[in-house]
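>> received
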Amino acid sequence: MFDIGFWELALIGVVALLILGPERLPTVARTAGLWLGRARRFMSDVKADIDNELRSEELRALKDIGADLKTATSDLDDVGRELNENVVSDDTLADAINQSAGVEDAEESAETAKAPAKENAGAG
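>> returned
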């Protein structure tokens, strides 16, 4: 807070002793100490109040972020459901394509099976 060293305090003490005298100096020092303690407590209370206010503001911001996350999660769930519905309908289409491709594949496999038989017949 203040940058007062030992020599500055000693100088203030000597001047206060000369001005106030030895009878009044202890009561003035006690009173000054009480006021200094009250000022420190007041400053620490103000600091604590500011810290509490900042924390409560951060908590409010976190709650807002949490609400935004819940909204985003529900939106993603909706998109996921729509994708699942589309995948199911696409699976039906894919099955139809695979079945038609399976017919062509069956024809190709039959032709490849006949080719080695012809080669064996020609060789023998």
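>> The CA atoms of residues 19 and 28 lie 12 Å apart.
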